[in-house]
Amino acid sequence: MDVRFATSFVKLVLDCIDREYPHSQLCWFDSDEDIKPPREVTPAFYGCLDWHSAVHGHWLLVRLCRCFPSAAFADSARAALDCSLTPAKIQGEIAHLQKRPFFECPYGFAWLLQLAMELREWDDPQAKAWLVTLAPLETVVATNFQLWLQKLVSPDRTGTHSQTAFALGLVLDWARSRSDRNFADAIATKARQFYLHDCNYPLQIEPLAYDFISPGLAEADLMRRLLAPIDFANWLSNFLPQFHTAEASQCLQPLQVENPNDYYQAHFRGLNLSRAWMLAGISSHLPVDDPRLAPLHTIADLHRQHGSLDVTSNCYASSHWVGTFAVYLATARGLGC
After folding, report:
1. Long-range CB contacts (< 8 A, 24+ apart) of 238-246?
2. What pLDDT does 337 receive?
3. Is residue 169 part of a domain?
4. Same domain, residue pair 97 and 215
5. Residues 128 and 215 in one domain
6. Which InterPro entries does the UniProt record give (predicted)?
């Protein structure tokens, strides 16, 4: 990541952060009163096609302003953040969650907490002020996520927004950044319950559909956060024995996007990028002499290269969200937790 690419990603977000339509929202309507324009329902995060993309679009702006504080885009990015993160708008978000406590849970909730974590780690006066504004919503989201987790009986093993392991990994990073031992322990307990005894995962069947997350790699990327390196290495041998074979790279090939205007096919851009960062996370926690490191690095690099192709495309199917995945990968966000 250099300032040139950072600028292009910021531009993608600024082009849609207040673009209300087209809009996609899965929501339960109880009456006519519930049918309102997106800007009235979720006044801080209504652009970028949907709520979760708007949230992690804001995360991208914070992340890149933090990484490139002197960049030319900093002023416009800060102005956009200042426009969204106001007390009145955040209260509007809280009011929405009071009606629908698990709206966009777990995926959107995980990114909201990542946004709060990024602000908290940034030693900047304006960031501190935004964090104070966002904090009440952060508290509501964290509380509701924990309630959701307590009631969760089995994990979602698909490759899209409802996927459990991916969200648990992001929220665990947030909980640890807050030194919230109870929350982190609750996530660890569920993760061990769901995944500790998994074995022989058929990675070759992925993607399951139009995935933007690999269910198998997301699970492994979560477990590397919880297990000591030698224990993780043993767990990985049971879970993904394919990586021990000479044909390891054949079980995971990058996906092609034939029609960049197709919203479902665009998911494959994110899948290539998220696979790359999850493989990097998995590799980072293996012993230095593990024979799987070389093939894992090769597979990760291949996905990084494919995921980076045309990543700043103006096709709205990708441009409203895929920059976040590129920035998360390029700035090694998940490895810094």
Report:
1. 238/198, 238/199, 238/200, 239/198, 239/199, 239/200, 239/201, 240/201, 240/203, 240/216, 241/200, 242/203, 242/204, 243/292, 243/295, 243/296, 244/291, 244/292
2. 60
3. no
4. no
5. no
6. DUF2891
